């Protein structure tokens, strides 16, 4: 009897489906702690660089955006390792350990006095950090960028993997997951820019960095503990190699005449089995020159093809899907450029304004982004609970509106955010001038910091629409075996956006300089600059970008995929659907 019960328990455990909602706490714990660690430092980093390491403002701003750019570029490497060799679980685990080491080093650099310059005394010139001290800082940041490079592209895709798209009962949960993912991420950022920034400003950077370091350690244990529950996708080989093989094969056969019908192009379901579990990509009419990679000639061995000469339609369509995503990817760059100013010049604006809530407490300048997080979280909640239901009545789509429409709304709101920021800066300087404080950068201007709330809030609303739509777009429209790599494109857009911000700041700082020393973006005194012109320059660039995006969205073709059904009583293949419309 005992043996029968034991066998029954084993059978139940074996049949228990993996994945689903039960895995979310383990996955989200990793994301929460990573964001606490990153944002807890990044949100207030400009204060750390200027007050602790005594960097000039422009150099500190560029250091900040360069770090953000690098940390958002490394996901390409992490995604490649996950898709090609290690899988998402092991990539996440190893990357989290690397990140843990980076945070430990950063915490030590904040605690040990010899790793940073001495505090300023009186009116003497502050001593800047030595090259050795900067090397330790940059080394820790680089190590952190490598760790986050494995976490960022994999955690979003790994969470979405827990819902089986071929199961009608779970397929509608994927788009909801991205709302939950971004909401949890936003909530952790909210804690970082309030509690952690307050600790950094009022208690010390040792505790301010030590606390997220401890939480990161706990998150690694929690994530690994969920291993038996996870639904995992086996790595299917290098996606970049497959894309290159199709390109080379199409080039070699560029002089061949096109076949008379798509049915004559090469198909091999056995060869594509590992990269088309949820459904195979079918032939599309765009970029037909790439179809030549699937033309069978007398030299080709169809049973064991040389993939540098002959590829299947599915593999050709993988490359087409990636190319089609390119213009939409590029449209997200300038929104990140605009968003990046919150951690640089908007923060510096806040430091000059009246931040008192009571006589004994004032809002830390680095915590102003709390208004971005609150507006973003509120928008996500309203979108998920109400806006989707209303939109569903008109569009008939389960997700309410398409991700392309969602992104477009975000772009439009972002234009408004930087336009408003320029007018707020004009008001701030008018008050400074009226009180004779234009040449006193250390004095607090008698204007409430809450004047900055509209620009922070609008950026949060824009992110709730654009960034979630962008992330969903990459996951939905990418080939199934390349979803880590495609999700990494979301972070590379952030990377390039930060680098564009660095370039734009440097160019404006250089070309707006006049012989009398005045500058749009002065190092020491914003009151003597023209920051509003800089904000309006970004506004103009975003208007051009919005027009570009609308054009790309209208021309975009959703990937055609043949989905294999798991519903009992239905045929094995549902037929061709346009991914993203269902």
Could you walk me through the main structural features you see in this protein, from its secondary elements to its overall organization?
It is a single chain. This protein has helices at residues 2-15, 24-42, 45-52, 57-73, 75-111, 131-161, 168-171, 173-202, 205-225, 239-252, 269-272, 313-331, 333-340, 345-352, 370-395, 403-434, 453-477, 483-511, 531-555, and strands spanning 279-281, 353-354, 445-448, 560-564, 573-578. The chain is 64% helix and 3% strand. The chain contains 19 helices and 5 strands. α5 crosses α18 and α8 crosses α17 (453-477). The protein folds into 2 domains: 15-234 and 332-564, Up-down Bundle (Growth Hormone, Chain: A); 239-320, no CATH class. It has 582 residues and is mainly α.
Proportion of strand residues:
under 5%
- Tell me the CATH superfamily of the largest domain: MFS general substrate transporter like domains
Rg value: 26 Å
Q: Could you say which structural class the secondary elements and strand pairing correspond to?
A: mainly alpha
Secondary-structure element sequence?
Answer: HHHHHHHHHHHEHHHEHHEHHHEE
Low-confidence stretches: 1-6, 8-14, 564-576
Compute the separation of the termini in Å: 49 Å
Largest sheet: 3 strands, antiparallel
**What is the 3D form?**
globular
- Bin the helical content: 55-70%
Average pLDDT over all residues: 80
Provide the CATH top-level class of the largest domain. Mainly Alpha
How many separate domains make up the residues?
A: 2
Total of DSSP H or I helical runs spanning 4+ residues: 19
The counted number of beta strands is 5
Q: At the third CATH level, what is the topology name of the largest domain?
A: Growth Hormone, Chain: A
């Amino acid at each position: 009897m005992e043996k029968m019960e034991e066998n029954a328990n084993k059978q139940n455990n074996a049949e228990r489906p993996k994945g689903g909602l039960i895995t979310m706490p383990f996955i989200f714990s990793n994301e929460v702690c990573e964001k606490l660690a990153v944002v807890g430092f990044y949100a207030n980093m400009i204060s750390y660089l200027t007050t602790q390491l005594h960097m000039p403002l422009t150099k500190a701003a560029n250091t900040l955006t360069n770090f953000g750019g690098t940390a958002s570029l490394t996901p390409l490497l992490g995604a490649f390792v996950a898709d090609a060799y290690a899988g998402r679980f092991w990539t996440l685990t190893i990357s989290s350990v690397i990140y843990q080491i980076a945070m430990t080093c950063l915490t030590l650099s904040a605690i040990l006095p010899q790793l940073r310059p001495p505090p300023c005394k009186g009116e003497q010139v502050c001593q800047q950090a030595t090259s050795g001290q900067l090397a330790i800082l940059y080394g820790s940041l680089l190590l952190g960028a490598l760790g986050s490079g494995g976490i960022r592209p994999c955690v979003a895709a790994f969470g979405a993997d827990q819902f089986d798209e071929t199961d009608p009962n779970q397929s509608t949960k994927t788009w909801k997951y991205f709302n939950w993912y971004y909401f949890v991420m936003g909530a952790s950022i909210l804690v970082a820019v309030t509690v952690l920034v307050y600790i950094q400003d009022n208690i010390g950077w040792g505790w301010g960095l030590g606390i997220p370091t401890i939480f990161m350690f706990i998150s690694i244990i929690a994530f690994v503990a969920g291993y038996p529950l996870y639904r995992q996708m086996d790595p299917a080989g290098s996606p970049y190699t497959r894309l290159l093989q199709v390109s080379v094969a199409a080039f070699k056969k560029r002089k061949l005449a096109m076949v008379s019908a798509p049915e004559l192009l090469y198909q091999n379901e056995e060869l594509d089995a590992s990269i088309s579990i949820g459904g195979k990509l079918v032939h599309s009419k765009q970029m037909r020159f790439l179809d030549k990679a699937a033309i069978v000639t007398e030299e080709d061995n169809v049973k064991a093809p040389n993939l540098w000469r002959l590829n299947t339609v599915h593999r050709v369509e993988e490359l087409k899907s990636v190319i089609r995503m390119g213009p939409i990817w590029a449209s997200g760059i300038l929104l990140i450029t605009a968003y990046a100013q919150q951690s640089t010049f908007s923060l510096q604006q806040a430091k000059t304004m009246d931040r008192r809530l009571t006589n004994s407490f004032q809002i830390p300048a680095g915590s102003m982004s709390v208004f971005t997080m609150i507006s973003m979280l509120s928008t996500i909640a309203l979108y998920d609970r109400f806006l989707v239901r209303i939109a569903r009545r008109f569009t008939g789509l389960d997700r309410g509106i398409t991700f392309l429409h969602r992104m477009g709304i975000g772009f439009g709101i972002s234009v408004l955010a930087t336009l408003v920021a320029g007018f707020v800066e004009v008001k701030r300087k008018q008050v400074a001038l009226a009180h004779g404080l234009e040449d006193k950068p250390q004095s607090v201007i008698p204007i409430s910091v809450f004047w900055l709330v509209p620009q922070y809030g609008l950026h949060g609303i824009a992110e709730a629409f654009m960034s979630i739509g962008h992330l969903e777009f990459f996951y939905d429209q990418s080939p199934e075996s390349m979803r880590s790599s495609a999700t990494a494109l979301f972070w590379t857009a952030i990377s390039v956006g930060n680098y564009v911000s660095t370039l734009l700041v440097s160019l404006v700082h250089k070309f707006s300089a006049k012989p009398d020393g005045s500058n749009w973006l002065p190092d020491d005194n914003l009151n003597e600059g023209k920051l509003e012109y800089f904000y309006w320059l970004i506004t103009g660039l975003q208007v051009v970008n919005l027009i570009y995006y609308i054009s790309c969205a209208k021309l975009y073709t959703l990937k055609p995929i043949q989905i294999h059904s798991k519903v009992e009583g239905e045929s094995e293949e549902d037929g061709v659907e346009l991914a993203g419309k269902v």
